[in-house]
Amino acid sequence: QVNSKQGGSACKEKHVVLLSPVGKIEISGCETGVHEIKLPKMSVLPSGPESSVSCEVCEGAEEMPEPLQQCTAWLRAYFCEPATTGTLPVPAFHHPLLQRDSFTRQVLWTLLNDVKFGEAVSYKQLADLAGNSRAARAVGGAMRSNPIPIIIPCHRVIRSSGDTGNYGAGQLLKEWLLSHERLQKEKLA
After folding, report:
1. Is the pLDDT of residue 9 over 70?
2. DSSP 8-state class, residue 89
3. Which terminal residue of the chain has fewer beta carbons within 10 Å of its beta carbon, N or C?
4. Beta carbons of 45 and 176 less than 8 angstroms apart
5. Which of 87, 121, 147 is the last residue of a domain?
6. Residue 55 appears among annotated catalytic residues
7. CA distances from 13 to 57, 58, 70, 89 (A)
8. Is residue 128 helix, strand or coil?
9. Are 142 and 123 in contact (CB under 8 A)?
10. Are residues 113 and 64 in the same domain?
11. Which one of 22, 56, 87 terminates a domain?
12. pTM for the full model?
């Protein structure tokens, strides 16, 4: 048993590992929601933009609380059938950053709701969307602290120059995710 991060009642944290085209993605959460998604640091890109790896839960499949089931289903769809992500429920989140009212939370929710698959937005544009046009640097900070990458698509936030900018899990993974979305969007067009 782990104390929930807000210091409220204890939550039983469960861990799941999803084997994805970009490597092992570690997901933690409880009955209330997803706590965190940890992406692998990539030093080499998977072969070809569409790697042949299917998306399978390789650890922790037993007794998975509903938010983790929804999270793994959503990620599997993201990698394998991106057109279906819009029809899937976004799992509940249970992370203090997403509970308390803050500009970071505002930015992350705005990103989740307004920047669609295959789109990109600049730090400044996202600051505008979140209601503070002068907060582009704060948007960068919000991206760095995002506990739920891919679902909250911080990889879609790029520099105004068009340069991809930084990414917690590394430049290669950010570029792979952006190119994966571009290719999938072209297929559907």
Report:
1. no
2. P
3. C
4. yes
5. 87
6. no
7. 17, 18, 16, 21
8. helix
9. no
10. no
11. 87
12. 0.87
Query: 2 lies in a domain?
Result: no
Helix, strand, coil distribution of the chain in percent, nearest 5: 40, 20, 45
pLDDT on residue 8: 52
Angle at 113 between CA 112 and CA 118, to 5 degrees: 70
Question: Which distant-in-sequence residues (6+ apart) come within 8 Å of 178 by Cβ?
Answer: 120, 155, 156, 158, 164
Amino acid at 106: Q
Tokens of 165: 């900018």
Q: Judging by beta carbons within 10 Å of its beta carbon (0-12, 13-18, 19+), is residue 51 exposed, middle or buried?
A: middle
pLDDT at 51 over 60: no
118 and 162 fall within a common domain: yes
Contact 119, 103 (CB under 8 A): no
List all residues 6 or more positions away from 140 whose beta carbon is below 8 Å from its beta carbon.
123, 165, 166
In a domain, 122, yes or no: yes
Task: Please indicate, yes or no, whether residues 109 and 148 belong to a single structural domain of this protein.
Answer: yes
Q: What are 96's two structure tokens? A: 């203090």
Residue 47's pLDDT band (cuts 50, 70, 90): low
Tokens of 102: 């803050």
The candidate with the shortest Cα–Cα distance to 107, out of 156, 165, 65, 163, is: 156
Is there a single domain that holds both residue 80 and residue 122? no
